[in-house]
């Protein structure tokens, strides 16, 4: 596994699921890590689990990524603890219930867009300000996208739009800041066994879900992308030689589902 020795990394939505796997992998690779989440009991569990092996190399903060002041506090606390910021991984995300436009409430649209798109914008904005002003300027932003970033009919409308927007955020940021040593990279993930699907507990639009399932190669459990594989790839992408070459890339990481 690539080394992240001495780097400081923020991972959002990281008290469970994919975010936690990414944060744990960075810690194992030698990084200092700050995580945020909005679920208090998950944060408490992480603190208990990581305290002995990682000691003072991590901090946790309860942070709503759609709250600009809270995001800035996360950045400030991270830099106060570790001295700088090198990597931001935007892993926080929520799913919709597969609702199409005609059946999607404004409330759910706002909720999904706030977490999945407004949040990464706010964290990116704050991270860039820190990357630019610190000694030895520069940094890497990894945005956790989805096959829905490019496939328009693999989820509900709100999730699809949010992930397409995240891909645009990735590319625009890469274009403007790449010559300043700030690199922006997207991972477009396939199906995963992660807590993002908690939203389904509140119901699914079954007609839309069945149409989506019938529109391509049927999903099978063995096509799930392992969390550990994504986490290792995130560490790899922050390598000083790899990040510049990957700037602006939105990389499919999906076990070839849907088929290319």
From TrEMBL:
Keyword Hydrolase listed? The answer is no
- What are the entry keywords? NADP
What CDD domains does UniProt report for this protein, alphabetically?
SDR_c
Alphabetically, the GO molecular function entries are: oxidoreductase activity, acting on the CH-OH group of donors, NAD or NADP as acceptor; quinone binding
Name one process (GO BP) from the record. fatty acid biosynthetic process
Under PANTHER family, the record lists: 3-KETOACYL-ACYL CARRIER PROTEIN REDUCTASE-RELATED (PTHR42760:SF127), SHORT-CHAIN DEHYDROGENASES/REDUCTASES FAMILY MEMBER (PTHR42760)
Its family remark reads: Belongs to the short-chain dehydrogenases/reductases (SDR) family.
The molecule here is called: NAD(P)-binding protein
| Native species | Corynascus novoguineensis
């Amino acid at each position: 596994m690539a080394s992240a020795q001495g780097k400081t990394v923020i991972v959002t939505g990281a008290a469970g699921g994919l975010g936690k796997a990414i944060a744990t992998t960075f810690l194992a690779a030698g990084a200092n890590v700050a995580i945020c989440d909005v679920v208090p009991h998950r944060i408490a569990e992480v603190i208990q689990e990581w305290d002995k092996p990682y000691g003072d190399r991590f901090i946790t903060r309860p942070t709503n990524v759609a709250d600009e002041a809270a995001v800035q506090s996360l950045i400030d606390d991270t830099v106060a603890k570790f001295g700088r910021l090198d990597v931001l991984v935007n892993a926080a995300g929520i799913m919709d219930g597969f609702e199409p436009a005609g059946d999607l409430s404004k409330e759910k649209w706002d909720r999904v867009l706030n977490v999945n798109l407004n949040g990464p914008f706010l964290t990116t904005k704050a991270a860039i300000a820190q990357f630019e002003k610190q000694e030895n300027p520069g940094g890497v932003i990894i945005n956790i996208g989805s096959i829905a970033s490019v496939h328009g009919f693999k989820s509900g409308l709100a999730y699809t739009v949010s992930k397409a927007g995240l891909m645009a955020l990735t590319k625009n940021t890469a274009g403007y800041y790449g010559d300043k040593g700030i690199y922006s990279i997207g991972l477009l993930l396939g199906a995963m066994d992660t807590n993002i699907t908690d939203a389904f507990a509140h119901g699914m639009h079954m007609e839309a879900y069945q149409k989506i399932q019938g529109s391509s190669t049927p999903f099978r459990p063995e096509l799930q992308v392992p969390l550990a594989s994504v986490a290792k790839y995130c560490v790899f992408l922050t390598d000083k030689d790899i990040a510049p070459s990957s700037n602006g890339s939105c990389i499919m990481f999906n076990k070839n589902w849907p088929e290319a």
